[in-house]
Structure formats: C-alpha cells, structure tokens
Amino acid sequence: MYLKQFVVGISLLVFLVASIGFASCSEVIDVERHVPSDFSESEMAEITLEITGESPFMLGIVETIPKGFTFPEIDSQVSDAEFFKVDRDAGKISFSVTGSTEITYHVIPSDDTEGAFEGYWVDMLYQTQELNEGKERWVSVTDPNSASSGQSSTTVSSGDTDSGVESSVPGFSLVIASISLFVCVLFVRKNNSGEDEE
Fold first, then answer.
1. Angle subtended at Cα 146 by Cα 142 and Cα 150, rounded to the nearest 5 degrees
2. Which end of the chain lies in a sparser environment, N or C, as judged by fewer CB atoms within 10 Å?
3. Is the pTM of this model over 0.85?
4. What does the pLDDT look like over 139-188, one tens digit per residue?
C-alpha cells in the first residue's frame, strides 16, 4: 500500500515539474506584420501578424494604425481573434494571444493616409526582478515591407538592449516544484496516518 501511494505521489510531482518546465522553456522569437502592397480607398484591407515561437506562449500585442485609416464599425468585422480590444479614437488595437501563430485585423484606408503601422508585443510568461519590467520588455513588431528592409517599423526604447525576450522564467519553476513536493508529502502522510489507526 505504501509503495502505491509513493508511486502516485512521485508521479504527480514529476507531472507538475515537467509541465512547468515546458512552460518556462517556451520562447517567442518574433512578431511580423504583413500589409498589402497597396490600399484601395474605402475598401477593407487585411493586416496579418505572424507569431514565430514555441508553444505554449502568451503574448500581448498593441498595434497603432496610421492617420487616415479607420477600423470597421462592427467589432466582428475588425478581427476574428478570440481576445482583442479596439480604441477607434486613438487608432489602436490590442490582442491577447495564447498559442495562435497568426492574428489578422482589418482597416479601412481613406484618400488621405500618412505614416506607418506601428506595434509592440510582450511575452506575458516572462518575468524579471526589475521594477520597470513593464516598460522594458516590449519589443517592436517587425515589418518586412518597411523602408528599413526587415527592421521594425518603430524604434525600441533606449533601455531595451535585448533583441528578443529570454526564454526562462526565473524562480517560477522552483516555487511550483516546492509547492507540489509539499502537497505530495502531505498527501502521503495523510494516507499513511489513516492506515495506522486501523
């Protein structure tokens, strides 16, 4: 009986630690924007964001459309993404992406457009000990059609020197593994104490 409980406890511990290990090894490498080569006035155009990375991942993406572009009035025509929010006054759209490698949204150009699409993304599974991590972890969305040939359409903040986001989640695996070990020990002790009474 003790062997069975021990095997169940160890199996549970291995499962929990392995699942946390897989989540902490995920890495998003890039988010790339694809826009049509030309726009027709007042006709809906599709913008595609391709996400390159290892699953599982969770991203936040914020896109700003150029002046002269608008979003469709009905949210279901803007995007078919599961979680997004549109700020029509500011010309911004934000996405929460989990595991999907492609996001699309639609815009409507007018006859007087200027500027470029801009966007930033952040890996929400990554944590640091930095107090200002909310500002420094945002990475520019790359645009292969921009004038800088494959570089991002916007500049990264001066404090961001990394080309991407690190793949580790410091301390997270250790804390979860410790908690799961503690739960397993309690489980085994509870089951063992019940047999002593019989």
1. 50
2. C
3. no
4. 888 887 664 433 334 332 323 334 343 434 445 555 666 777 777 677 77
CB under 8 Å to 14, separation ≥6 — which residues? Answer: none
What DSSP string runs through 42-78? TS-EEEEEEEEEPSS-EEEEEEEPPEEEE--SSHHHH
Inter-residue contact 61 to 97 (CB < 8 Å)? yes
Using CB atoms within 10 Å of the CB of residue 124, give its burial: 0 to 12 exposed, 13 to 18 middle, 19+ buried: middle
Burial of residue 148 (number of CB atoms within 10 Å: 0-12, 13-18, 19+): exposed
Helices (H), the chain: 2-24, 75-78, 133-136, 172-197
Q: Coil, strand, or helix at residue 97?
A: strand
Burial state string for 80-111 with b = 16 or more CB within 10 A and e = fewer than 16:
ebeebebeeeebbbebebeeeeebebebbbee
CA distance 124 to 152: 20
